[in-house]
Every structure is written in structure tokens, then in C-alpha cells.
Amino acid sequence: xxxxxxxxxxxxxxxxxxxxxxxxxxxxxxxxxxxxxxxxxxxxxxxxxxxxxxxxxxxxxxxxxxxxxxxxxxxxxxxxxxxxxxxxxxxxxxxxxxxxxxxxxxxxxxxxxxxxxxxxxxxxxxxxxxxxxxxxxxxxxxxxxxxxxxxxxxxxxxxxxxxxxxxxxxxxxxxxxxxxxxxxxxxxxxxxxxxxxxxxxxxxxxxxxxxxxxxxxxxxxxxxxxxxxxxxxxxxxxxxxxxxxxxxxxxxxxxxxxxxxxxxxxxxxxxxxxxxxxxxxxxxxxxx
Length: 288
Prior knowledge:
alpha/beta, Endonuclease, Chain A, six-stranded mixed β-sheet
């Protein structure tokens, strides 16, 4: 039994952990072993092995080696996976903010740091990657109070580096028109935020479209979302949903396809990028 071909290591330890999880699950299934049987052979609980295979927790390289031996994977294939497991133990920058970022959101930031493309819809607020410092501070104060607010804002601004790195993420944003009209933090904060978005919208890797009220009902009325795509085909796309207290990553291919088609529909219903930029500039003047 052999593993999949050696995979170049990813930059984000979160993506590495997810990759190891998927490989170990597939290898166990190819070996014809149930979770119960494999867990007993590896001297761990069924629940722990299940959490490893769903990337909820990490796995030490020595335990990866034991699992690969059990699944009869040896040689270069085994060493490649063990090396990925070692790199998965490294710390991402976001882990320096673990005092203010919940674990479920750290997982998302780890995925976002590795993504090559992000597609998102927001109904109520500006997406974090587009927020100014003042707008982000007000959002946190309104949704989570004053505790740790400056650290949270710093983490949010750090995330925005993906837009301007050497190989920047491709970002497609659809905004409900309501986002442009709600004066979060007052007129001055909102005017600055809208001007900032107008500038960001002109980056070659960023597309911002406004979904006008005139478009009427639309298929994303029940939920904002983010779709994350990665450079390596070994890293399957993810749909991420969250609220104040939890996040949910959807990895099923049919679910990802469904949200991808949804995003395409919203892009068709929204103003085109040029008209959206004009609408952003108009909205900013309303708060001047």
C-alpha cells in the first residue's frame, strides 16, 4: 500500500494539519480498517483518532510514523508525510493572538493565510480583510465589548497582508448595499472606511461588487460565507461559515460547488466592478 505522491509543504501549519488528516483517513480506508480497529492498534481512543482525521487536533510525527507502519506505507511516501507532520507543529503568526482569538477562528485564519483565492458575501458589515483600524475597533466593541479589543484589531490588520504579499490572494467580495449605508462608528469612521474600500477595489487582485437593494431577493439572504481555494489540488476548497460563538468549515465537494454557484449568481445580480466603485464613492460622500 502506498501513499499519494509526495506533496510540497504548505506555508500554513493549519493547512498542513488538514492535509495530514485527510491523508491518514484515506490510508486507513484503503487499508480496510475501521476507526475502532485502527485506534486499538495505535493505542489511542476512537474519538482521538476521529478528531485527528477531521483536523480538529494535530498529531505528532512519531504517531504519524506508527500509523503509516500500520497502513503499510514506507519509504519516500512515508517520509514525505512525516515531514509535513513535523512542519504542522510550527506556529502560525495568528497563534500569537490566541489570547484574543477563539480556537475555531484561528483555524479559519490559518486557512486564509494559505488561500490563493477568496470569494465572500457580506450582508451587514465590511469583511475583515477590507476594514480600517477604526471600523474594526468599532465592530469589536459592538459585538464583543472592550476586552482585548486592541489585540483583536491588530490581528485583523495583520490578516490583511494577504492582499499585498508578493503573490497576493485573489479576492472577490459581494457586499449588500446596506453595508454602505450603516454608519458604524459615526460619519467620520464610515467615510474613511468607504474611501479605503474604494482604493482597495482598484488593486488588480481585488474585485468588490455591490448588491443593490433594487436587485430584490437573492439566494444568500440567509447567510454570509467565505469560499477558500488553495494552489495545491491536494488541498480541497473549503466553505467557511461563522457567527459570534462558532465557526463551521464545509469540505464536501457538493457543498463547495453549491456555494460557488451561489457566488456566481450574486456576482451576476450585483453591480459590475466599475459601477460598484462609483457607488462606493457616492456612499462615502454621504458621510463626509
